[in-house]
Amino acid sequence: MRILSKMKRLKEHPLLEMLSRNKGNPRTLVFIEPLWGIPYNLIAPFATLYMYTQGITDVQIGLILSISMFVQVFFSFFGGILTDKLGRKFTTMMGDFFGWAVACLIWAISNNFWLFLVAAILNSFEQINQTAWYCLLIEDAEPKDLIGLYTWVNIGGLVAIFFAPLSGLFINSFSVVPVLRILYLIFSINMILKTLITFRFCRETRQGKIRMAETKKVSVFHMLGEYRQLIPKVLKNKGVMKAVAVSVILYITNLVSTNFFSLYVTQWLGISDEYLALFPILNAAVMLAFMVGIQHKLNSVKFRIPMWVGLALYAGAVLLLVLSPEGSLPCVVLYVFMWAVAAALINPRKDALLQLNINPQERARINALIMASTIALASPFGYFSGWLSSLDRRLPFIFMFLLFVTAMVIIGRIQEPEFDKNSGNADQRLDG
Length: 432
Description:
- By secondary structure, the chain is an all-alpha fold.
- The protein is 78% helix and 1% strand.
- Strands 1-2 form a two-stranded antiparallel sheet.
């Protein structure tokens, strides 16, 4: 009886109830996301080492990254146009196939600079997929369920992180190149399977069908020219600009944290390298526990309060890290804990905040424009953070603290989103 009671309570969990209510695209896309997330997290920590081991120099690796970032901005810009003309479903399938399945197949056989460059350029197709995938996920869902859907997407990524140590075990037993070749091949097969499942079980959204009909006889160049009217509208929308500002800040801080956290804790604080593999798992475990156990209880709380608290935790965590004495592992663990709780509060709401401000009729092109702008605006800060770190290892984190404080000020000035139950859309009330 106790087991049946527990199963009944589990079925009544708000996240599961929300997913059962949103059948079709949302449920399918959430369920198949681990097909991408698990192999990605197995490969990501060793991708650079895979190139370096095969004779790709530091300069060549940097050149590949720079070229791929430029191509990503280009593809992001055109992602909205292709999503409108070809449809959300087909564009998602195209991005998964070329951006991941074909790219991973080339990575699996890469042994020189040119093959790695071709794979990286093909992988940039993923930026087109990003725009289409988000539209396919949310456009037929209820606006009040956006936070829940984005929570599920984050949960899928977090569960995948627990598989990451497996690749380290395989590499210790064999070596990086043969293991990564097999993992890339598995990744490619997974993404072909993901493409086929999307084709079979997903359907074009209502808004996608409307935009396909509206743009059927409109040339790509004409649609590109329409950005001249669209860009001023976006710039004049205070709610969108505030949401974009927060997204750019969080993109930059994630860029800095990803590239300089391990360097700071090992070189400045003197923490042993062996702990580096444990921090992502701790971060994922805390975020997962928070999202499953607490996130749904915050639905009745005003939208911006959890975001403001999350940003305050981010700022406090960074300040703690800067002030930590040398060799203080407990301080670093506390930093990871605070960072994880902050991310659990911020990530789903940041994405939902942006979508609630976007005109549904122009969601694809505005999303693409915002994505391209975010990458372009954030790209110089990688070099800037590296320059700060060369002066003092603490400076990139002090810079992050200032960015989080700035984001707190912006969040403090937004208005709460209100949902129009008749239209199924959120009122655009974030202009204050």
